[in-house]
Structures
1.
Amino acid sequence: MSSPFLAIDIGNTRLKWALYDSARPGAALQAQGAEFLDHIERLADGPWADLPSPGSMLGCVVAGDAVRRRAEEQIVERFDCTPRWVMSSAGEAGIVNGYDHPTRLGADRFVAMIGARHRMLAAAKPGQPPRPMVVVLIGTAVTVEAIDADGKFLGGLILPGHGIMLRALESGTAGLHVPTGEVREFPTNTSDALTSGGTYAIAGAVERMVQHVRSHCGAEPACYMTGGAGWKMAPVMNGHFELVESLIMDGLLVIARERASN
Ligand SMILES: Nc1ncnc2c1ncn2[C@@H]1O[C@H](COP(=O)(O)OP(=O)(O)O)[C@@H](O)[C@H]1O
Ligand SMILES: CC(C)(COP(=O)(O)O)[C@@H](O)C(=O)NCCC(=O)O
Ligand SMILES: [K+]
């Protein structure tokens, strides 16, 4: 008998949650939401109050122990299931972790790569070999991961996200104040210059990683993008980046299914 499954992704800005009808890739989404970290205490009595109780949950958390504990309090207060969190390991669910210290890799990065690998394999036509991948997470920070065709995580970049870049510029200068501008190829005012600078800094780093993977692996990578600010980046990306809002949740579903069958 399958029972509902709760997936949770806690980043440095927001907690994202999604309730599925079962713990397997492709499960039907029953409810989802996102809360800024300051508002986690309201989950049990708020958005979670009327949900069916999940039989199990799995999450990833990079926001620190205090935030994880606050989330666990909400989970056990509201639901009859044990909080479980993915730790990055030397390998799981088709990804081999090439980090110098595999457990130090952010769990969100590890899980997103697992979700992406599953998606890439599912999209392959019969007889088509697995492809290398570039996986981009646009959250508080930006990460750009390289994975070869065998599923080995080769390494990844960490950059400041849009918000951190703008706040750093504002605090480090007299004449720059955080404005909201437009992305322009040739910005002619400060607001547009700042917004475009941040956007193209990320786009440029991503394009470089695509080049690195292409020449290292000798094949065109499958490119996936996710994260709260992914929609801002998708329109300026050259080439075919697939924006997959649910990549981390997809990875949690893959891991939950694998763990249940092992
Ligand atoms: N409702 C929103 N409107 C505009 N931007 C948002 C919104 N929510 C998130 N963002 C952007 O996305 C970033 C956070 O994305 P998210 O994936 O939640 O990050 P994290 O996983 O680090 O918590 C923020 O830095 C912000 O730029
Ligand atoms: C790189 C990150 C800060 C990204 O966090 P996020 O933007 O999702 O909040 C997080 O994955 C993290 O703390 N990683 C640990 C260090 C590492 O991956 O090398
Ligand atoms: K994240």
2.
Amino acid sequence: MAEQSLVLPSIAAMRLEPHLPPSPSTSPGKDISPSSEPPFVTLTFATSLDSALSLGPGMRTTLSGLRSKAMTHYLRSRHDAICVGVGTAIADDPGLNCRLAAEAPPLETSPTSDTAGVGALLGLASISTKQSVIDETNGTVTTHQPRPIVIDPKLRWDFTSESKVMKLARAGKGLAPYIITAVPNPPEDKKELLQDLGGKFIILNEPQSFGPNVGSDNRRFDWRTILAAVRNEGLQSIMIEGGGEVINSLLSQENSHLIDSVIITIAPTWLGQGSVFVSPPRNVNANGSSSAVARLTNITYMPLGEDLVLCGNIASQD
Ligand SMILES: NC(=O)C1=CN([C@@H]2O[C@H](COP(=O)(O)OP(=O)(O)OC[C@H]3O[C@@H](n4cnc5c(N)ncnc54)[C@H](O)[C@@H]3O)[C@@H](O)[C@H]2O)C=CC1
Ligand SMILES: Nc1nc(O)c(N)c(N[C@@H]2O[C@H](COP(=O)(O)O)[C@@H](O)[C@H]2O)n1
């Protein structure tokens, strides 16, 4: 079945702007050299009214309506990278590409104009988006595609050439993933498959720690190490989509300061008990009392179809 076109109203794009990183660095002429600066981090996901991401571990669950889905794809057009944990890669077989409707710019529009491509479609004349670029070899318009990043320390994801993200990369409709792992020698066949499509394994040697709610044989990378590895690839912004473990660890007291922006789609539904929930580890103070883990500030609320999109920044904890 053909996918419906995803289009975001220009007013919604304008209201998102204060919550977004500068335009993606794969725009022609931009400096994408590695740097010690961390990337801009956007935490974004869709949740139910009972704070659930999916009906259960391993279950792909649609929460976003068409309009908020278009918003998520607009975010994908505005970040250099898109990140999920291996639990999500296995459960969802995700595409992790941008499928916003794109159309050719008017003849008089220059390739570097702010209104080119998707920007023209969205009517974004007054803001700098540049999420579409002109392919200089054949003059076609291509929407900016984010680089998928999968965190898979033990290489649990048995991807093949038929995995959705690989098929999209082969078709030129997305990018092949970079897989962050602790396995020093990944299997040659997987390595070749990735390399043929422009993806790769990123092997992290840094010591891993035991995270909260994590089994004793399952170590975790420090998020600062993950983000440094991403930035080392010249990727200046990353949207982190999930799943449950990834979101809960990022929202924890020790990591939430790494988040620059939070954009949450709230769907008017309850998924119920047994779901995968967003609920970070509790803060227990030195005297044994508890306090909120994190709170948003600089809020924007935006209805999109039947969903509500909530944007904000993590408030400082002092
Ligand atoms: N509604 C939404 O927006 C989204 C929903 N989901 C749903 O979430 C569910 C998957 O969530 P989870 O099972 O919690 O899996 P997950 O996607 O959070 O992956 C967890 C795994 O990622 C790896 N990992 C994560 N952080 C790591 C770190 N710091 N260092 C090393 N390894 C790390 C570990 O192997 C861990 O077992 C699925 O049902 C999926 O459909 C996923 C993304 C978005
Ligand atoms: N924004 C949003 N709304 C939902 O209802 C979702 N289930 C998700 N899931 C995330 O999107 C990924 C799927 O991406 P593709 O459509 O296959 O490109 C999935 O893996 C989750 O990260 N997101």
